[in-house]
Structure formats: C-alpha cells, structure tokens
Amino acid sequence: MSKRSPKPARDKPDVAEPSYPSLNFEEDTLPEDEYEEEVEYSTPVTRRRSISPRKAGYGSPRPMTRSRSSHSPKNVSFLPPPMAPMGDEEDLDSSYDGSVVDLKDEIMEYLGAVYAMICGFCSRHNIFAVFFMLFIVFYFSSPPTVNPQPTFADDVKTKITAQDDLLGRALLLIGKRLADPTIAVSDGPLAFTVASGNQSQLNSAITAVQTILTTHFHDSITTERIQTFSAATTRDEVRSLINSLLFNANGKVLIVLGHIDRLRSTAPLALQTPTDKDNAPYKNPVYVTAIVDEEAFSAPLTRKECTANAERLLDTAWTSEGGLSEDQASPVISRLTTFNICLAPGTF
Predict the structure, then answer these.
(1) H or E segment to which residue 286 belongs
(2) What is the per-residue pLDDT across 85-105, written as a single tens digit (0 to 9) for each?
C-alpha cells in the first residue's frame, strides 16, 4: 500500500510528523457529503483528513467534482484521534496485542466478584428478613395479654364483702334484680337500711355501693342521694322529690335516703307508697335508708341487735313531739328496715 510522505516544514522546528494510511483521495470524485476532521497534536503540525461517507457507513456516495481544498474544516469526530504517531496499516495491525480483550475479561471478572459478594450479603439478610417477618406474624397473630375486667361478683367480693358481709349480700341481691327484671316485678321495690356510728364511714360505704352499680349496671340503674331532709321538710316536698327521681329514671334508680330520722310530723308518710310492694308506681327502685347515730351503732352488733336499734331510732324520732302515731309509723318503718346492715367499727 502506498504511503504519503509529509511535506517538509518551512521555517519550523524539526518535529517528527506522524504518518497516516492512504485513504485514496480522488480530487475529481469527492462525495457531496464529505467532511473533514481536524486533528490537533501537541506539536504545531496540523493535518486534515477527509473521510468518505462510504467508509463512515452512510451508504453510497454521490460523485461530484469538488476541490479538496474547498472544504471548510469541521470539528466532527467519528473516529478517535490517534494518541501517538502511527505507521503503516501493517504496523497498526501488528501492534494490536489483545489488551482490550484482556481488560474486558478483567472487568467481567471483577463484576462477577462484586455480584457474588452482593448475593452473599443479600442471602444473609434475606434469612434475617424471613426470621423478622415470622416474628412479626407470630407477634401479631397471638392475642395480646389483657387483664380481664373484674366481674360484678368479683368487685363486690373484694370491695364490699371483705369489709362487711351483710352489705355484700345486699349488693349481690341488687345485682340479681338488675340482671333479671322479672324479680323486681314480682317482689316490688327493695329497701334496706345501712346504719353507722360515723358519718365518714357511712359515706364511704354508700359511695362504694354506688360506684360498683354504676360501673357494671350503668345502663340498668342510676343512683341518687338525698341529703336534704330536715325537721322542716314537709310531706309534699318528700313526695315530690321522690316522684321526680322515679319519673326521670323510669323507676330504674337507687335512691339513698339520708337523714330520714330528722323528718318530723307527717313527712315520713310520704315514704310509705313508693316502698309498698302492691301500691308502688314503680317496681324497680332500690331504697337505701342511711342512718347515723354514734350511741346506737358505735359498738359491734349482731343482726338482731342492729335491726332492733334501727327500728327504735326511727320510731322514737317520728313519734315524738306530736309526730306520727305508732300505727302510722310502724308500716313505714317495717318497709324500710326489712334488711338492716350495721357497719362494724373500723370498716370502710
């Protein structure tokens, strides 16, 4: 293959110019789309090479007559510029030693090692993820440990019966009526007396009863407490107060009657009809008569002694000073004291 010898440089330092393979330029048959590539080297020497579209892969060239010198240089590079002076094509072919292939193999080997390392890391962490997911599944599938809410009987036993057995029995009886409304229909209103020699002790006991009932039977009963009775309270005022409480709760109410021993004249007679089994307008109410007397209830009493003291206290209060007669007071007292509880000292 023919070689093109470089022209001697004029008035320039002697610099070894690179030789290029002949590309067979034809001055009279240059293609229309021919372009020139300007290659600059570190030396002051500049050469231009014209490449035909056929060699660049753009199809068949269209012959035309054009002078090679008429092309203006374009900075378009489809072929990488040589990094060092090249010789003949034979020298270029013989200089290829396969280093690019070796580099590719090295890159692939390196990527393979990285891939293996990543796979190993992922496999270890995938096992951890599996165990973590199994833990999450078992944790949320197992029912949480929740302390069960105490039942009504449990609350009565721990909070009331432990302090006073009779009061605990009375509260269980109230709960039985609330659980089965037919009992109230057949038995009528329930009334019992709670007596104590200390006002604070009596208040604590009554509050405990109200709390348990409202906690377990808040949809079945309400609790009311009357502490306004006095010697000046009239019979009509007592009747109106009780009837309003019964009406508002539709009879499903526990009414604490405080200080009824203070009632005078005919005022206690207002309690007779609401507590009567046959004539009561509502069958569901529960009446708790609260009595405080330090002299009568300070010492421990038997059930018989407790009943006797409660009846005597009310009878003395209502029949003295021109109040009720024995025949009038007896029916009311008997309805209110059918079940009597005297709190022992030191309880509640």
Answers:
(1) strand 286-292
(2) 544 444 444 444 544 445 667
Question: Which is higher by pLDDT, 307 or 85?
Answer: 307
Contacts of residue 62, defined as CB under 8 A and 6 or more positions apart, other chains included, come to 31, 32, 33
**Rounded CA separation 260/271 (Å):** 10
Sequential DSSP letters for 37-80: EEEE-SSS-EEEEEE-HHHHTS----EE---GGGPPPB---SSP
In 3-state terms the chain splits into helix, strand, coil percentages (rounded to 5) of 45, 15, 40
Confidence of residue 72 (pLDDT cuts 50, 70, 90): very low
208 pLDDT band, cuts 50/70/90, is very high
Spatial CB neighbours of 219, under 8 Å, sequence gap ≥ 6:
none
Q: Which residues contact 303 (CB under 8 A, 6 or more apart)?
A: 166, 340
Calpha distance 313→200 (Å, rounded): 20
User: Domain residue spans in the chain?
Assistant: 152-343
Please provide the DSSP assignment of 253-285 as one string. Answer: EEEEEETGGG--TTGGGGGTTTT-TTT-S-SS-
What is the CATH number that goes with domain 152-343?
3.40.50.12190
Residues making up the chain, counted from first to last: 348
117-159 confidence digits (pLDDT tens)? 656 655 655 666 556 656 665 665 556 666 778 899 999 999 9
Half-sphere exposure (Cβ direction) of 49: Cα atoms closer than 13 Å? 21
128 three-class SS? helix
What whole-number distance in Å separates Cα of residue 346 and Cα of residue 298? Answer: 10
Tokens representing 296 are 């009568």
